[in-house]
Structures are given as structure tokens and as C-alpha cells.
Amino acid sequence: MSFLEISGLHKHYGPVAALAGVDLSVASGSRTAIVGPSGCGKTTLLRLIAGFEAPDQGRIALDGEVLANGGSAVPAHRRGIGVVAQDGALFPHLTIGDNIGFGMARGDDKRSERIVELAYIVGLDKAILKRRPHELSGGQQQRVALARAMAMKPRLMLLDEPFSALDTGLRASMRKAVAELLEAAGITTILVTHDQAEALSFASQVAVMREGKFSQVDSPRELYLRPRDRMIAEFLGDAIILPAKISGGFANSPLGRIPVDTADNRDVARIMLRPEQIALKRTSREGMSGTPDMLFGEVTESEFGGSMCTIAVRLLNSADPPDAAAIGNTPLVLRKPGMDAPAVGEIVRLTVLGKAHVFA
Amino acid sequence: MFPTAIAVLQLLPPGGSGAAPELMQSAVDLARSGLGSDTGQRTLRRTAPWIVLAAILVSLLSLLPLAFIIWIAVQTGWETVSALVFRPRVGELLVNTGLLVLLAVPIAIVLSVALAWLTERSDLPGARLWAWLCVAPLAIPAFVHSYAWITMVPRLHGLWAGVLVSVIAYFPFLYLTVSAALRRLDPGLEDAAAALGLGPWRVFLRVVLPQLRLAICGGSLLVALHLLAEYGLYVFIRFDTFTTAIVDQFQSTFNGPAANMLAGVLVSCCFVLLGIEVLVRGEERYARVGSGAARYQQRARLGRATIPGLLLLLATTLLALGVPFVTIGRWLVAGGADVWRFDEIGLALGQTLLLALAGALLATVAAMPMAWISIRAPGPLQRLLEGCNYIVGSLPGAVIALALVTITVRIALPLYQTLFTILIAYALMFLPRALVSLRASIAQAPVELERAASSLGRPPLNALWSTTIRLSAPGAAAGMALVALGIMNELTATQMLAPNGTRTLAMAFWSYSGEIDYASAAPYAFIMVAMSLPLTWLLYVQSKRMAGR
């Protein structure tokens, strides 16, 4: 049963099409992330859902109620949709307490009680309520913005890159806290972000957006391992893309015979592996002899990066390649734990874990 | 880009009031935070003893009028002072002036906020043209506004007439500050309020209006100080305020204690206004919280409200521009060729330009050390010195003139009614205008250039001259132009201080209209307006550019 239903949404700014036919359905109580490069139209979509702007064409319905249909739209203040903006958009002329209570009825006797409660829920100290927004850190400001949006018990919560202004460590913990909090409150959430890792870890449904359209909407795992095309694959993370010949559920590729996720047979195809699907095992030149079906490589570069190292491996032998010459000279770039990464010049044995994905 | 434009906004006052810069500075707190605080105090000590000394001298000089008023009060003795101050006439003037401010300022606030919203945030047809028309009344000196009204409605007089003409003549100050603030508001906040369930009206009242508070405070103070300082406007419509009473008193008893004590009360009124503004403004910060670029603002659809909106702008334009232009035009037509006495007009124009340019030059040179310190070496000393200048800048021209008359007559008689004294008066009155404009342009000249020049072997002052001062020339020129504009339309101080035989455009206009020879006065009004219009255009363009449009 879908809670938010968007169909055929179009929006133009002058000659520029910000949205060119967006369809989306969001289940009640779920978390959806919309991810895409900047300028792809994701913020426009969010603004249309929030009601800050009206679409040129298309329909938005929430819980059976039509919010926008073509040019006619319910204004934002009658939608009951919470929004947390990138910078929090806290009112600089009000205290934190007044910010949180902004959407509540002013005569309410339980107002101050509820403000304290909300502050507690988002993990803010009570003492902070008397302060002003500019006295708070970025993370605290985001928490206030969230509490403020939750105060009006929204049916739907829209998060517009709310974590992007925070530093790396804080970002992950805020993301987790917010996800848990909204889950507990049972609020359906849509997160807009340009950070794929954020999208994948936050949501149960991820929509990849490009040039005003969704290229693929799927669960994070599905999206990551079975992207529809090369651009989606590379947007969501590092990808190793190889030419291959597919038959009988296996691909013959420069990396040998690899099981694939399709039963079709194809002479010319491209397969995708995530770098973490390639395991390395230290060996030596002597260890290479007499094992023609195994795959070996030499480490040509190694870049230390703290917990993870980036290493480049040049294949030394290649089994049954359709165009081995082409791939043979291009090193594979892999990220491995820094503690036990092979050094430059070492010989490693490569094995492929799991199945490769075949692009349609 | 940003500071220049703010400076231009700050430069507006055509009368003696220069308190505006400081206030609007606070209204646009953003500007200050960015200005070279990184250069720090060390620069001050290392390279700038001369500059600091010069700045201190200028500040001391600017405090002279204030010091003299206090000195005279002390010398006169308490009994005479209290006899002069606590009398029905002073009470009457206090009530008049107070009522004027209390009525005119709120009306101007409401009008300006409405006009600013219509021109900045609604889809009103021709918004850009209307915005310019809302600024254009600044080109018309207040006493010309008054002249236009009195010749159109001869029976106009008293408090309500004063309120009417005051609002018309001075609302653009509020309009400029409010519309600039409106342009800079973060539309994200309005979106956030709408998402929290507030309708458009409540968003305006609870989010937009509170954020305009600083702009409204600054603009209101500016308008109120002008009302206190204005002379010609109220003489035409026979409404007595402190300033008119001081000038009357001066004309009848010269610089007697009576005039000086009235001036003392007027100065206290100015300080009360400054204090109220500080209290109301509070310590709050209204800048954008958070990072990232603000979205573009959307303009509200007026729909059926378009017609009333247009009518409001049309009515304002007719009252503020239509009436003066029609009146001047009518008198020019009625007077025909006879009123264009070119020898006389030429002489007045020449004298006016000479005074305006010399005064502008002096004010700019005097402002230079202070401007440099406030950018390159900000600190408590600089704030103190700047504060002195702004306070003096907020005093009415009549008060400064009276003080200088007293000083020259008592201490340096040969200087009385000389070019020197009147130029000093202009410099004191208009120093803040020159200061903000210079400060903004110096802020844009990177300190690295000065250092590079030093490292290439130039001594400090030479390095300063060949880099920063050269680069700040355009800003200095703009500041000079605005000081010149102020001097050109200045009447009160010029009348009291100018050497015998001086006849500026404003003085000639004043004496003809005093003789009810309105036709002969018209060419002078026409020339003053024609010379001021390009400067208000400049002002308008700069205030637009501030918002990056």
C-alpha cells in the first residue's frame, strides 16, 4: 500500500527542465532516499512534495489526498509535511525553544512541556532551549530543525541534505540517530542527498536521479549489486567493468570464469564487479607455476589511506580473454584494509567472490 | 561587491545626519564580520603611528561642537540654563517635535515596508521601475518638497501638514534599508515556516517582519534624526520645531545663550533617539545561520491585489514626485524666460559647486585615516574614534553651525564667516558619508598589495598611497559625490556660517521663496533636483547590485 504516490511530475524553470516525468511510490513508515549529482532535480522534487512550488504537470497524492495535480496545488502550510533543510533554516530571531515550538499552537498549555520532550527525543540538553541558533554547532542546529519539524507530528518528513554540512564523524552518527528516531516515531521519510553512501545506508528504498528523471528505484542492496547501467554503477561506488562472453550462467572474462546473475547466453556483454568482490592472497612468482587456471597479479601502486589502502594490481596472466590485451595493461584498483595490504612489487593471487552483474 | 553597496546605502542622508552608517552597519552585520579582522592590531603599531594620530585629531575636532555646547552651559550657570530650558516655549517645541516624530516615523515605516514588499517580493508589473521611483524622491531637497506643497495648497500648515511632507520627503531612507534587507532574507526560513503550518500572512508577521527589525530601526532613526534637523520644510508650513526655533533665535539674538540652550535640548533629543534605537535594536543577530548559498526568492503572486498595490505605488509616486515636478514646472512656465537670470544663477551655481567640491574633498581627506584604521587595524580605539564621528554626524546642521559661530566669535574672530569655517562645518556634518564609502572600497583593496609594495622598498606611507589609496579611488569618488550632494542641498548651516555675499543655489531659492517670489525660486529648485537625480540613480543601481542582480 503506497502512502505517497507521485506520477508524471514535470517542472520547468524557463527552458530548463528540472523534472522530466518523475514517478515514485513510497510505502507508509518507510525510508526513501533520492540520490543524484547536484543539479539533477532532486531538490526541486522535494520542494514540489513540500508544496513550496507547484508542478507544471503531474500528480502528487499523500495518503489518498491529492496535494498537487497539474498547476493546482495545496499550499505548503496545509500539507502537514515536515521539512529539514540543508542548513536547518532555524529562525535567527527566536530562541531554540521558540524555534522548536514554532509550529505549535501558541495558547497550548502543554507547549513548553512538549518542547522539552522533543528536545530530549532529538538528544538536546534542556539548557540549550534558552540559547540562540548561532550559538549552536552544526549538528545541534540540525537536531533543533528536526525537533521543530517533528513538533507538528508530520505525516511525511522531508530531509534535504541535512547531514551534508556536518563533518564526517558526526554525519554517520547523526544519520543513524535520525533514522532510528523517525523509525520509532513511525514517520515516513524521504531523504535527498548527493552522497551515495548516505543514501544506501539510510533508506530501504533508493531512487537514483539523473537529469530530472529516476534512472532506477530499488532496494539499496539490489541497486548496488545490480545497477541498471554503468553510470548508476559508478555513481554508487567503485566498479570494475569488464568485457565478457556469457554462457550457461558463467562469464568468460579477463578475470576468468565468474558466475553471473543471469541465465541468458550472450557473446558480447559487459559485466560489473565491485572491487570488494576480488580477494587477494599473497604468494610469490614461484607459487604461480603449475596453476594455469588461477589468476595472478603484481601490485604496482599502493596508497596508504588510514584504515583502507588503495592498491593497483596489474594482471600477470589472464584466462581466456575476449580482448585480454586491452585489459591486461589496465591495473585493477582495489581498496583493502590498511593493516595487511600487500606492498608494491608483491605477487598476489586473485579470486572473485559472489556473482558478477551483467548489464542489460 | 557587498560592502560597497552597503556603503552607498549608508551614505544616503542629504541633511546633516550621518548616524545612518553606524546603524545600517548594524543592520547589515554581515559586512563587518568579513572585513580584514585578520590583519589585526600589529599592523596598527608597526606602520601607522601617523595615520592613527591623524584619525585621533579628526575625531577630537569633530567633538568640538559638542564640547562647546557643554562648556557654554557650564559657563552660563545653572540658574540661567534652567530659566532658559524650563519654560513653556521649550515645552511647546518639545511637544511639537515629539508629536512630529511619533506620527511621521510609524507612518513612514508602514508605507516603506508595504512598498518594499511590493517592489521586492511580489509580481507587481514594473517592479523595477517602481523601485527606482521609490528612491527618486531623495533627489528633491526636503524644503523643495515643502515649497511644492505650499504653493499647491497655500493653506497647508501645522502638525499634520508637517507629518505629510515629512513622510513624503524622508520615507525613501526607510524604503532603501527595508528593501535591501528584504532582498537579503533567506527564503529558506519562509519555506520552513510554511512547512510548519503557517499561512502567508503569519509567515510575514512571525518570520519576515522580525528579521526586518534592524533595517526598520536603522531607517527609522535616520528619518527621525532628519526630522529633528530639518529647517526649511517646517518654515514653509509654519510649524515650529527645535531647529526652526534655534535658527529664529539665532537670527534675532545671534549666538546668545538662549539659542545655545535650545541647541542643548535638541542634542539631548538626538541622544535620546540614538539610545532608543540601541535599546530596540538589541543584541540580536539576524544574519543567516548555517552555510550554503541562499536560494533565490520567489515572488508572491498578487492576483486580485495587483490593482490596490499599483494604486499605492501610483499614489506615493504622485505625492512624492508628481507634486514637486508639477509645481516646479508650473512656476517655470508661469515665470517664462524672465526667471532665468543667468548671471545670478551662474554665480550661485559656481559658488555652490565650489563649496560642494571643496567640502567633499576636505571630508574625504579627513575620513581617510579613520577608514584605513577601521579596515586594516580594527579594535577598541578605532570603534571609539568612529563612534565620535557618527555622534557628531547625527547632530543637526543648525547645532554644528551654532557651535562653530560661538567658537569663532569667542576664540578666533578672524575665522568667523570664512570659507575655512564653513568647510569645517561641512566636513564635520558629512564625514560619516565619506567614511563609509572609503571604508568599503579600502576593504576591497587586499592588504597583500600594500605589503608587496613595502617589500619592494616603498616606505609605509608611500606604499599606502601607491596601492590602497589608488585602488580605493572609485569609492572615494562616490563618497565625494554624495558629500557634494549633501552640501549642495544644505541650507541651515550654510545660512548661518557662509561668508558675506555667499549665495548658493539653496540660499537663493530660500530667499526668493521667502519673498513669496515662487517663480524666481523655481529655476534654483530645478537645478538642484536635476543635479541630484543622477546620484540617486547611482544609489539605486548600487543597492540593486548588492543583492547580486
UniProtKB/TrEMBL annotation, chain A:
A Pfam family found in this protein is: ABC_tran
Any single GO molecular-function term of the entry would be: ATP binding
**ABC transporter domain location, by residue?**
4-236
Q: Which InterPro entries match?
A: AAA+_ATPase, ABC_SmlMolc_Importer, ABC_transporter-like_ATP-bd, ABC_transporter-like_CS, ABC_transpr_FbpC, Mo/tungstate-bd_C_term_dom, P-loop_NTPase
On the tree of life, the source organism's domain of life is Bacteria
Give a yes or no for keyword Nucleotide-binding in this entry: yes
The UniProt keywords, alphabetically, are: ATP-binding, Cell inner membrane, Cell membrane, Ion transport, Iron, Iron transport, Membrane, Nucleotide-binding, Translocase, Transport
Q: Cite the Gene3D superfamilies for this sequence.
A: 2.40.50.450, P-loop containing nucleotide triphosphate hydrolases
The portions of this protein that span the membrane are: none
Record-stated family: Belongs to the ABC transporter superfamily.
Q: Which PANTHER family match?
A: PUTRESCINE TRANSPORT ATP-BINDING PROTEIN POTG, SPERMIDINE/PUTRESCINE IMPORT ATP-BINDING PROTEIN POTA
Protein name (Swiss-Prot/TrEMBL): ABC transporter ATP-binding protein
